[in-house]
Amino acid sequence: MKYELNGTRRQFLGLTTAAGVALFPASAPAFATSEVFMMDLPPASAAIAPFKISIPNAAIKDLKYRLRNARYPEKETVDDTSQGPQLSNFIELMDYLAKPFAP
Q1: Where do the structural domains in the chain lie, given as residue ranges?
Q2: How far apart, in Å, do the first and last CA atoms of the chain sit?
Q3: What is the chain's Cα-based Rg?
Q4: What is the distance, to the nearest Å, from the Cα of residue 83 to the centroid of all Cα atoms in its chain?
Q5: Whole-structure pTM value
Q6: Based on the number of CB atoms within 10 Å of its own CB, is 87 exposed (0-12), middle (13-18) or buried (19 or more)?
């Protein structure tokens, strides 16, 4: 099934907000009866605690592939950050993340 939207962004946001408000009462009982689980955390400390993480090599390889093959938007039309981060800074960061690094 294909839906086409022939309206403005404001109309779309209004429609989705109205749908969310209409559907919330039906889902509220599920939230009201769900249990809350709390984690036992150690006391706060200024000391740095060592930790280890394990990330599969396949996940790292996939991430690097995605970073190298990302498609970037056109350069921004202004010289400041009013349209978000500068494309050149973003590409520099992606290049840094795609390179191998050691702790």
Answers
A1: 57-73+81-98
A2: 50
A3: 23
A4: 18
A5: 0.41
A6: middle
Cα gap 87→74, rounded to integer Å: 8
Rounded distance between C-alpha atoms, residue 98 and residue 60, angstroms: 9
Q: Could you report the per-residue pLDDT of 37-95, keeping only the tens digit for each?
A: 677 777 888 888 888 888 899 998 898 888 888 888 888 888 888 888 888 988 888 88
- CA–CA gap between residue 103 and residue 53 (Å, rounded): 12
Are the C-beta atoms of 72 and 91 separated by less than 8 Å? yes
Tell me which residue of 95, 39, 37 sits closest to 67, measured CA to CA: 95
How many secondary structure helices (H) and strands (E) does the chain include?
3, 0
For residue 67, give the 3-state DSSP assignment.
helix
Tokens of 58: 């396949």
Both tokens assigned to 4? 């086409």
Q: How many residues does the chain have?
A: 103
Are 89 and 96 contacting, i.e. CB atoms less than 8 angstroms apart? no
Q: Report residue 93 as tokens.
A: 């960061």
